[in-house]
Write a structure and sequence with these properties.
The complex is a heterodimer of chains A (109) and B (116). With 109 residues, chain A is an all-beta fold. Chain A is built from no helices and 9 strands. Chain A is globular. Chain A starts with 8 loop residues before the first strand and ends with a strand. Chain B is an all-beta fold and 116 residues long. In chain B, a hairpin with a 2-residue loop joins strand 5 and strand 6 (53-56). The N and C termini of chain B lie far apart (35 Å). Chain B contains no helices and 11 strands. Classes of the chains: A mainly beta (109), B mainly beta (116). Chain A binds chain B through residues 30, 32, 34, 41-46, 49, 87, 91-95, 97-102, and chain B through 4, 31, 33, 35, 42-43, 45, 48, 50, 55-56, 91, 93, 95, 97, 99-110.
Chain lengths: 109, 116
């Protein structure tokens, strides 16, 4: 299983862009990169998934370089409600996806 | 669809008692996961079902824990007897898992279990 490394925490202010980089040096050819968001007292919520290059949806963008050994989740113009834990997961099959410690993002006014 | 529904939302029980947590999957989903979350250990996968069959239960802590899927839309996680160290938030998640790629897993709101 591909091991992931991401920062433990990040602080930001409202309106700023937040970029969280996840390292996954031993990613396999068939592995996808998936990000989840978890608010306090709630279950994790799928944000975005990608295989290579760039993926964008209404919530975030995911940038994946050609070597795929890392990925960056970009949250544009964050608000206080974006304060949450963000998890980077790498794998092929759902049940092999393991949630690490995640990155606690704190957005301040 | 109302999403993955877990019950109860909160459970407080005494050590030694049996605890049953319940989960209703999203209609049409064929994969079911039970996770446990604590501050110390984070989110841990306990067991994974696919098409009602347990595929991987290597995360189940010990024989006191058991999980079943009596039908395609419902699952239970039972702890008997419960111990204080079982106190955690238990999440159920479901997905339309395919064989070739990872798909989005939908999590329930969780059951906060406190064993005193």
């Amino acid at each position: 299983l591909a091991k992931t490394t991401q920062p433990i925490s990040m602080d930001s202010y409202e309106g700023q862009e937040v970029n969280i980089t996840c390292s996954h040096n031993n990613i396999a050819t068939n592995d996808y990169i998936t990000w989840y968001q978890q608010f306090p007292s709630q279950g994790p919520r799928f944000i975005i998934q990608g295989y290579k290059t760039k993926v964008t949806n209404e919530v975030a963008s995911l940038f994946i370089p050609a070597d795929r050994k890392s990925s960056t989740l970009s949250l544009p113009r964050v608000s206080l409600s974006d304060t949450a834990v963000y998890y980077c997961l790498v794998g092929t099959n759902d049940y092999k996806l393991s949630f690490g410690a995640g990155t606690t993002v704190t957005v301040r006014a | 669809d109302a999403g993955v529904i877990q019950s109860p939302r909160h459970e407080v029980t005494e050590m030694g008692q049996e605890v049953t947590l319940r989960c209703k999957l999203i209609s049409g989903h064929n994969s079911l996961f039970w996770y446990r979350q604590t501050m110390m250990r984070g989110l841990e996968l306990l067991i994974y079902f696919n098409n009602n069959v347990p595929i991987d239960d290597s995360g189940m802590p010990e024989d006191r824990f058991s999980a079943k899927m009596p039908n395609a839309s419902f699952s239970t996680l039972k702890i008997q007897p419960s111990e204080p160290r079982d106190s955690a938030v238990y999440f159920c998640a479901s997905s339309e898992a395919g064989a070739s790629r990872s798909s989005e897993a939908f999590f329930g709101q969780g059951t906060r279990l406190t064993v005193v």
